[in-house]
Design brief:
The chain is α/β, with parallel strands linked by helices. It is built from 9 helices and 10 strands.
Length: about 290
Amino acid sequence: MDEFLARIRNFDIRIRKAVNSQMRGSFRSVFKGTGLEFSDLRTYQYGDDVRVIDWNVSSKGHGTFVKVFREEKDQTVFFVVDVSASQQVGPRQRNKLDATKEICGVLALSAIREASHVGLYCFSDRKEQYIKPANGMKTGYQLITSLYKSQPESSRTNISDALLFTLNSLKRRSVVFLISDFIDQNYDHNLKALAKKHDLVVIHLFDQREVHLPRLGIVPVHDTETGRTVWINTSSAQFRQGLRNSFQQNQIRLERLCKQYNANYLAINSQEDFVPKLVDLFRVRRYQ
C-alpha cells in the first residue's frame, strides 16, 4: 500500500507541475465541469449570449432579460471503475487493472484538492464497491485505499448497469470519470444518458496484446470472464487482422459516441506512461 501511495503522489506531482507550467488560471478549472446554478436576472446588454435570454420573462413586455448563473460550490467528482476479470489482462507486474487503479488514484488525489466531493463506484456485473461522494482529504485517501484493496467477487462485466446506477445515484450535475476496457455490449443508451446529464470523461484502457498479439502458433487462451478455454492460431494472418479490426471498430465507435454527446474521450495503453495524456486531457478541459 505504501508503495502504491508513493507512486500516486509522484504522478500527482508530475501532473501538477506540467499543468501549472502550461496553463494560466486555476488548476481547479479542469474539475469544475459546467456545474452552474441559476442566481438572478438582469437586463440584456449588448454582447450578451442570446442563449441565456429568459424568454418567458422577456415576453411580458418589460424589456429583455438574461439569466445570471453562478458556479455550484458543491461540485462532485465521481469515479466509475471497471474491475471485472478482463481488466486483469497484461503482464503480471502491471496489468490493466493495476493501471486503472493508478489512474483513478491520481485523479482522485487531484480532485479532492480542487472539488468539494469525491465518490467511487467499482463494478463488474454487479456493485463491487461504493463510496458515497463526500468532502475532505480523509475521503480521498479512503477512496484510494479501498481501490487498492479491491478484490472483485464477480468476473463478468455489465457496463450498462453501472451507468444506470450512476444515473440514479447522482442527483446533481457532476464530473464523472468512467474507466474501463469497454469489452462489453449494449451500454450505448445509458452512456448517452449519462453524457447528457453529467460532465463525462471516458478513459479507455487497453493492453497492446489485445491489438497486436504475439505470433505464438496454436495456443490455449483462457477467457477470464466466462471461464472457457479455446485454442487459437496466433500466427494466422486472418485471425490477427480480425483482432485488430475488432479493437479499432470498438474504439472508433466509442470515440464517436463521446464526441457526439460532448464527452471527453481518452485511450490509454496500460503499459505506457499515462501522465502526458492526462496533462493533455486537463489542457483540453481547461479551455472547453
